[in-house]
TrEMBL record:
PANTHER family xrefs: DNA POLYMERASE III SUBUNIT DELTA, REPLICATION FACTOR C / DNA POLYMERASE III GAMMA-TAU SUBUNIT
Keywords, sorted A to Z: DNA replication, DNA-directed DNA polymerase, Nucleotidyltransferase, Transferase
Location of the DNA polymerase III delta subunit C-terminal domain: 206-319
Gene name of this polypeptide: holB
Protein name per its UniProtKB record: DNA polymerase III subunit delta'
SUPFAM superfamilies per UniProt: P-loop containing nucleoside triphosphate hydrolases (SSF52540)
Catalytic activity reported: DNA(n) + a 2'-deoxyribonucleoside 5'-triphosphate = DNA(n+1) + diphosphate
A single GO BP: DNA-templated DNA replication
InterPro entries (UniProt xref): DNA_pol_HolB, DNA_pol_III_delta_C, DNA_Rep/Repair_Clamp_Loader, P-loop_NTPase
Cellular component GO terms, alphabetical: DNA polymerase III complex
NCBIfam families: holB
UniProt entry tagged with the keyword Acyltransferase: no
Length: 329
C-alpha cells in the first residue's frame, strides 16, 4: 500500500471508486507533501496505469516498471518551472496534446499538475477547456495545498479529495517508528503543524541546531535591540524560507501568549520559558503581531520571487525591530 497509515483508508477508497468506475476524471487532491499527498498520488497513478487492475498497483507488470523508472509514456507531470515560479501556458498546451492521444499500454492516460495553484491565468484558462470536456481514458489529477488560489471555475470542475491528517497520537507513533525519540517527535510534530512527513524532516539534529541559532539571534535582537548587522552573517547562509519558517510560529506563539496568557498551547513547546519571559517584558500583543506580520510579508515575497535580495530584506526587518519596540514603549 502507500506506506503511511493515515492514508491507507483514503487509498482504498480511491481504488474502490476506480474499480467501480466511479472515480472522476478530474480530481483535485488537497494537501501537501507534509501529509503525504505526493505518496498518495504516486500510488493512485499506479492504480490507474497498472496492467493488473484486480491487484493494482502490482509493482511487477511492464507498466508498473516503466512508471517506477520514471519513463511511462502514458503519464505526464506538470509542475512550476522552478522555485517561486509559475506553470505557464506552454506546459498546458503540452498537456492538451498529450490528452488527445491514445494510451500506449492499453490502460489509461494520467496527467498530474503539481502545485496547481501556481498556474498562471493563461495556463489556468487553457486547462479549463480540457476540464470542461475531459478526454475519455484520461485522468486529470491536480494537487494543491492552497486550493483557494485556483480559479473558481477550475475548482468547480473538479471533485475534491482532501488528504486526511492523522490524530496526534498516530502521527507521533509513526515518527517514533521512524526512529525519532518521543520528546523530539512531540516537538517536531508541533512545529510541523501536525504534518508527520514534514515533522520527520524537522526531527534532525542538524535542523534543531540551526533552529536554535535562528531563535537565539531573534530573541537577542528583541531583548537587546542593536543596529549591528554582522550577526546576520550566519542567517544569510541559510535558506530564507527555512529561517522564516522558524521565526513565524515562534512570533505567533508570543502573540498568543500576549493575548491569552500562559494557558494557551504553544507550538514551540521547548521555548515556553523564554517566550513567557519576553512577553512579560513586552506584554503588548500589537508588538508581536506587527513582527509576525513583517515575517509573513517576507515569506510571501520569498515564495513569489526567487531572485529577491534576501540580504537587503533581512537587514530591513532586523533594523525594524528596535523601531517597533520603541513604538510600543
Amino acid at each position: 500500500m502507500i506506506g503511511l497509515p493515515w492514508l491507507e483508508a483514503a487509498g482504498r477508497q480511491l481504488r474502490d471508486q476506480y474499480r467501480q468506475q466511479r472515480l472522476p476524471h478530474g480530481l483535485l487532491i488537497v494537501g501537501g507533501s507534509g501529509l503525504g499527498a505526493d505518496r498518495l498520488i504516486q500510488w493512485l497513478e499506479g492504480v490507474l496505469l497498472c496492467q493488473h487492475p484486480d491487484r493494482a498497483p502490482c509493482g511487477q507488470c511492464h507498466s508498473c516498471n516503466l512508471r517506477l523508472a520514471g519513463n511511462h509514456g502514458d503519464l505526464l507531470h506538470l509542475q512550476p518551472e522552478g522555485k517561486g515560479q509559475q506553470i505557464k501556458v506552454g506546459a498546458v498546451r503540452e498537456l492538451v496534446s498529450f490528452s488527445q492521444g491514445k494510451a500506449q499500454y492499453g490502460q489509461n492516460q494520467v496527467v498530474l499538475v503539481q502545485q496547481a495553484e501556481r498556474l498562471n491565468l493563461a495556463a489556468a484558462n487553457a486547462l479549463l477547456k480540457v476540464l470542461e470536456e475531459p478526454p475519455a481514458g484520461t485522468y486529470m489529477l491536480l494537487q494543491s495545498a492552497d486550493p483557494a488560489r485556483l480559479l473558481p471555475t477550475i475548482r468547480s470542475r473538479l471533485q475534491w479529495f482532501r488528504c486526511p491528517a492523522p490524530p496526534v497520537a498516530e502521527g507521533q507513533s509513526w515518527l517514533e517508528g521512524q526512529g525519532v525519540e518521543q520528546a523530539a517527535a512531540e516537538l517536531a510534530l508541533a512545529l510541523a503543524d501536525h504534518q508527520p512527513c514534514n515533522a520527520l524532516m524537522l526531527a534532525t539534529e542538524d535542523f534543531m541546531s540551526r533552529r536554535q541559532r535562528c531563535l537565539e539571534l531573534l530573541r537577542g535582537q528583541i531583548e537587546r535591540p542593536s543596529p549591528n548587522l554582522e550577526v546576520l552573517t550566519g542567517l544569510l547562509e541559510q535558506e530564507p524560507a527555512q529561517v522564516l519558517s522558524i521565526w513565524r510560529p515562534w512570533l505567533a506563539d508570543a502573540a498568543r501568549l500576549a493575548q491569552a496568557g500562559t494557558s494557551v498551547p504553544l507550538r514551540n513547546t521547548d521555548q515556553a520559558d523564554a517566550l513567557q519571559s519576553l512577553v512579560g517584558r513586552y506584554p503588548t500583543a500589537a508588538l508581536w503581531l506587527r513582527l509576525y506580520d513583517a515575517v509573513e510579508q517576507l515569506r510571501i515575497q520569498v515564495e513569489a520571487d526567487n531572485n529577491l535580495n534576501w540580504q537587503l530584506l533581512l537587514e530591513q526587518f532586523w533594523l525594524s525591530i528596535p523601531r517597533e519596540i520603541r513604538r510600543t514603549a
